[in-house]
Fold each of these.
Amino acid sequence: MDMNAAVVDTYGPPEVVRIQRRPRPRAVRSDVVVDVAAASVNSGDARIRGARFPAGFGVPGRIALGLRGPRRPVLGIALSGRVVETGPRATDLRPGDRVCGMTDMRMGAHAEFAAVPEQRLVRIPDGVSDDEAAAVLFGGTTALWFLRDRARLRRGERVLVIGGAGAVGTHAVQIARSLGAEVTATASEGNLPLLSRLGAHHAVDRASTSLSDLPGPYDVVFDTVGALHPDTAAPLLSPDGRVILAAATLAETITPRARVITGTAGAGRELVSDLLDGIVAGTLTPVIEAVLPLERIAEAYARVDSGHKTGSILVCP
């Protein structure tokens, strides 16, 4: 049985993505096959499609992913849907279960069906839509892991979120607020009302206010867009402050520095379950800019590449 999938054979602009008929995956070992309801098109997907990696990661990225094009040509790492088949070693999920999760390096979410290891999927609770479940994954896991688990954000601390309107930023604003922090966030002027609705105490126009003019110091500075270097972040920090570089260069990642947090966010079941619980409780609302059919995935990529996306963009096979 075949399916439609968005295929990237060679690195390049959004136009390199094409819809192709491919064999539907089968469930082997502990995999389950998910009938994909929604999948995000995010900055991670766009970096792989365009081979645009943070400074220093170009050669390692191509070695890991493919020299001239992705070895796994169906991209996409965050999905929601319904289980239709389980492998012989899958012991928890059953056909019919609504699930969401991250496929990690296996990718494959930009298709009608995807095979995913059972341990990477979480049941979607009642009251959470497929779109919400898909949209919370990429930005939500990054924001929650960095703020709660790495920076260990505490109630009453002051947080600055740089790039508050993106997929990571919109989740970071809400998660920091729910953890009891005083939140300042930057974005373009048109997105300032959104930041306020999400819970930011102070919404700052990035075009008219430089970072050096912000009323710090901050206990946590969360750079979601790669705007800071550790040296330029230092003047913004309180004596015990720490800076999170979500888009760190290779040098920033491998060079230990006090108070500088880098790394790749986890995407385990516990993180995803906590995010879904936040949606159910009403403390977390994924921001979705658009939901497009899979056939329009090149448009989704173009919007991501523009740098002006608000929240998440989803495709529905």
Amino acid sequence: MNLRSYLDLYSLLQEDTSTPEERRAFGLSHVTVKDKPIEQLLAWMEEHRYQLKKPLLSEAFSSTLYSVSLTLVAIAFVLGLLSGIGLLSYNGHEPVNVIYFMSMVIFVPLFTMTLTLFSMLRANSVQSLLVHISPAFWMERLLQLLPHKTQEDLKNLKVNPLLANWIVIKRSQVIALAFSFGLLCALLGMVATKDIAFAWSTTLHVTPEGFHSFLSTLAFPWRDFFPWAVPSVELIEQSQYFRLGDKLSEEMVSNASKLGEWWKFLAFATLFYAIILRFLLYLLSSVGLKRAIRRSFLSLEGAKKLLSDMNEPIISTHAKQNEAVFRQTESLYSNVADSLDASYDLVLGWAIPKEQLTVISESMKVIAPRHYEVGGANTLEEDNEVIHLSHGEILLFVKAWEPPTMDFID
């Protein structure tokens, strides 16, 4: 069950012309999925998929969504790469302030992921501000730039707001991941190709010991496994930078070779906060999207009526009093049944398909283990095979306006 299945069922329900009898016959022939509405809808869709017109709406929508998402992912990666290069740019006179890069790879992701969690809780709302401020929401605007034919195919598509919100949430996580990978690539590339001197500077009154305690708290996911990726108190003291004058302190210059060790902490911080946590949120959004698709199946126009026709017996009406039956004085038949038994060993239908026979038997409150179509377009060999299988008490249905008396005798 995925978005394509949802769109295929949407298309089928828009064009469906099946009768209640045909739907009831389908329900009786698929007893394994009884009382499982989603499975029933999927089974019905698979059996009637051949009715879908090409090109499929699901293929057009998926292709469009993939193209737009791929474009946004590429843009996000480039922006992340350029942002990282800008934050790590080093002119040789002033060190790179790690506070800026930490803010981009730790605090900004934590803030946006918190907003995402709130947006998941508000995904049921049609007007969810937290969803609509997401960059992925503007995919709809990019659709206007597509060729006219594609717009014509998709403009009448009505997607459940719950499903649309979860699509935006999931795509937003992919875009954010691409941006974070751009930052990580920029960090690794700059460290590998340049001799960067990192430092930290803030107007707030923060001691090296206090800053070390703060960084140790941030590094709790990896500090026990990779202690060398946590800045020491000595490194923090040596890399504290004050903007007084145009020259660096002699102590910082003498320890310039050690200032580059900050990249290990920055790399692990980017990997954990901006990528791993975001990937976990992506997995959560994938689960949410699947649940939204499942709920949206039942909200499709015509889905409830289809399930009702599948699962509810067909009710027929008749006169309260039996009409007088004309009978010849000398009847050719020695026994005339005025009512049907509750069960038969075999039910046959003259030019009546097996699916309709099951519905007719149910409406007549008749139980039989086997149903066969005879006569009509059947060959003599096929009828002979049914004759050999016919034992016990047999019920034969024929069309009242076309009784095949002589055919049956033959």
Amino acid sequence: MALIIPGVEVKVVKEVLAPQLAPSGVLGLVGIVENPSAAVGRAASWRSFIDGFGAASAFSLPEAAQALGNGVFELVVCPVACSSTASVKVPAATGNATAFTLAARAPGPWGNAISVSIQSRQIPTGKKLESGEDETRTVFDLIARYAGSDYKEVHRNLSADPADQIRNARDVLAAQSQLLRIGEDRDKLKPPKDSPDSKDASAAPYALAGASDADPDAYRQALAQLENEADVDMVLVSVQDTRDATRVGRIYADVISHCDRMSARSQGRIGFGEVPGATPAEIASAADKLTGTLVSDRFVLVAPAGVVGAVAGTTGSLDYFQSPTFKRLSGLGEPAPALGVEAQQELLRKNVVPIVAQRGRGIIVIRGLTTDGDQISVRRVADHAVRGVKTIGELFIGRLNNEEGRGALKQKLVEFLVQMQKEGAIVPSTDGTDPAFKLNVYSSQQDFAQGIVRVDLAVRPVRAIDYIYATVLVQV
């Protein structure tokens, strides 16, 4: 409004302030959890993961513990629908006519690795029979073991009788077990293999069996849920059954497609997978099958199997411009099988990341590279630049397309790129003749009429030093 009476009018215009980018190291984790119907959830700690997805998820989704233990910023967990659960039928114990079914707490073939020993006995109830003898009741001790680990559960003085409210097996396992529960009639269990032909429950051990992995379409549907999580910059699909390399490759191909699709939305992501195999020869054979179809600058293959969660966690804990090469992995035993020098060289030629134990260093990543042979950190730097340009550019949508507006946009982009250069994410050429970045913001007359401003940007990501060649002159 124009002043009529002489005076001063002051307008306060708030400067455009670019919001802070989401932290790097947010891992989208896709896999089978205890409650397959659970919605997509987040976990920044082990306690929040267990509380949100169930105790058995520690076994059905082991990559979660590895990633959190190696410093990933946050997990975004997408449950995979799976209805196949491992189980075993336990016959009636001596003196007890009640048979029951033990089932894994979470679906998926992980439960096939559970074995159970049951020892039944009679204990006094503290009451007397009419004959004057002590009254007894049948109870049993249940010992559950998980193959491939030292984990063991012991539950004592259980009763399988539903009418018995003292140490009822259903209630005790529901409250205390991470592995087992009593099977319900509504469970969609395959007919479990019966125990040995004996009425004595002490004829154990019993092995849970009958569970199969979710089909690739279920993994794809769960992966699609990550499209709504804009801050995710890493993706890991935990495939439980890796025996069929062709099936595993199909699931990993979906991960690459997902990462490419999200990069087109300026939400670049890197996927992680592992090469199955019990021996170096099997790993090499599986790597041949997988690397032939999974060549991408947005996918990382790790060998041997069982450590990919730790690699993703370590990558997420680093600054986005740092390489995981020679970085130490935490919370792991020695990788099996051990990869010798020749096996490491063969995998590196196929752009597979070997994980090995080195004396004095621990468990380390030999070289962090994608399946197309480029460094992981280079891809992450480029993705960070893309996210920054998108975030800053959105601040100017709807503003006047004039020289001042384009100048303001360029100034904000320069600020962002200078900060990346100060962090060491982008660098000038080694001879100093070419700058760390080049930027041009412009609009042609036709662009101006259509409300378009164009940004041409070039950045030079820093690269890790992977090789040092030294020349030693021996003087006399």
